């Protein structure tokens, strides 16, 4: 993993030097969805949509989101999932360093926790009750982080339409959230310079698909991929970078994103919580606020992760 890292950084340096001095090479961008593009953990909103759609006598799983549907008086499913992560951590061993945190996030132990959750939800029989109306209602309640569409359009103008790599749970759901949000964005900005670009459709999405039927229109950029961990994201990132001469940039927000963040040519945490930031620094992670002067990334020693509260500070990556 470290070897790949060093290689991609030197590629970045070479291509940046080779480019004319006004325009450094625009990176290929890979982005997490929940918590990074969306301010919300949208998987919980998706789960709420499933509970809303399912007739009460057909509900076979405790609610995933403890904040809603607690009237069902069932065991807190999210707490159980978190216990499963803790059990996996204990089995992995004592995690005290940043490197161990990255390694655990890429491990089969950590992967199996999310795979078990996914399989249990997929086989619950509840997903089949979902309707377009209910999905649309929940999609319009998602908050997209500030600057996302400006960032995505700036990247697209430099030939780097961002690719979404997400572990949660449905391509159709993620695409619907993008479509809904981009419509809002466009209605607020009457003079978008590249209005011919349907970027909400152009963004490739690599994700599982838990909805058994095609409820919503598909897009040629949908890519079903059984992704359940940061290690899976690294695999797909490597596959997509084959033959690519550009450097890679990964943007995420959580511990699950550490493997691709560290593996890519550069890694930026957008929307990381203070708790996780404090934890990673205590474990020896080198986290620094992302600034325009952080560019070009080639100056780093390859172990720095940058942080930003939203997407606005990242737009200059594509304006250099
Ligand atoms: C989504 O996130 C935003 C920003 O953190 C928050 O204000 C909003 O209440 C959240 N929406 C839902 C439905 O959780
Ligand atoms: C975990 O590591 C810390 C720091 O090295 C140490 O203080 C602690 O005793 C260890 N715990 C276990 C259960 O090994
Ligand atoms: C927690 O793990 C157990 C054992 O693998 C599994 O049966 C259970 O469904 C898991 N819970 C969740 C919420 O994923
Ligand atoms: C609009 O975006 C597309 C896709 O990136 C690009 O091919 C095209 O050149 C852009 N057009 C303008 C006017 O920027
Ligand atoms: C419209 O375009 C002008 C000129 O490029 C720009 O200054 C202005 O901020 C844009 N308005 C919106 C709402 O984007
Ligand atoms: C692997 C991964 O990203 N799993 C996430 C799926 O969604 C839950 C709920 O938001 C997160 O806690 C997991 O980290």
TrEMBL record:
Annotated Gene3D superfamilies: HAD superfamily/HAD-like
Residues forming coiled coils: none
SUPFAM superfamilies: HAD-like (SSF56784)
Signal peptide region: 1-18
Entry keyword set: Signal
Record bears the keyword Signal: yes
Source organism, top-level taxon: Eukaryota
Protein name (record): Haloacid dehalogenase-like hydrolase
């Amino acid at each position: 993993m470290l070897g790949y890292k060093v290689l991609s950084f030197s590629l970045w340096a070479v291509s940046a030097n080779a480019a004319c001095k006004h325009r450094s090479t625009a990176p290929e961008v890979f982005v997490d969805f929940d918590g990074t593009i969306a301010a919300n953990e949208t998987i919980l909103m998706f789960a709420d949509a499933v509970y809303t759609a399912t007739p009460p006598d057909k509900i076979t799983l405790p609610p995933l989101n403890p904040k809603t549907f607690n009237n069902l008086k069932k065991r807190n499913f999210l707490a159980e999932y978190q216990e499963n992560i803790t059990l996996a951590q204990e089995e992995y061993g004592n995690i005290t360093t940043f490197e161990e945190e990255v390694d655990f996030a890429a491990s089969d132990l950590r992967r199996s926790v999310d795979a078990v959750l996914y399989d249990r939800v997929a086989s619950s029989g509840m997903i089949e009750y979902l309707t377009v109306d209910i999905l649309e209602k929940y999609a319009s309640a998602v908050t997209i982080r500030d600057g996302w569409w400006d960032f995505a359009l700036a990247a697209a103008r430099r030939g780097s339409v961002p690719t979404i790599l997400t572990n949660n749970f449905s391509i159709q759901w993620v695409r619907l959230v993008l479509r809904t949000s981009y419509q809002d964005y466009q209605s607020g900005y009457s003079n978008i310079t590249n209005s011919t670009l349907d970027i909400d459709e152009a963004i490739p999405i690599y994700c599982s698909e838990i909805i058994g039927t095609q409820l919503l229109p598909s897009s040629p950029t949908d890519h079903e991929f059984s992704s359940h961990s940061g290690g899976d994201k690294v695999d797909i990132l490597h596959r997509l970078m084959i033959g690519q001469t550009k450097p890679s940039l990964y943007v995420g927000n959580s511990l699950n994103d550490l493997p691709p963040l560290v593996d890519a040519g550069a890694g930026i945490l957008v929307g990381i919580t203070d708790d996780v930031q404090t934890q990673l620094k205590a474990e020896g992670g080198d986290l620094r606020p992302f600034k325009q002067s952080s560019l070009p990334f080639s100056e780093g020693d390859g172990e720095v992760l940058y942080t930003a509260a939203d997407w606005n500070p990242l737009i200059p990556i594509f304006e250099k």
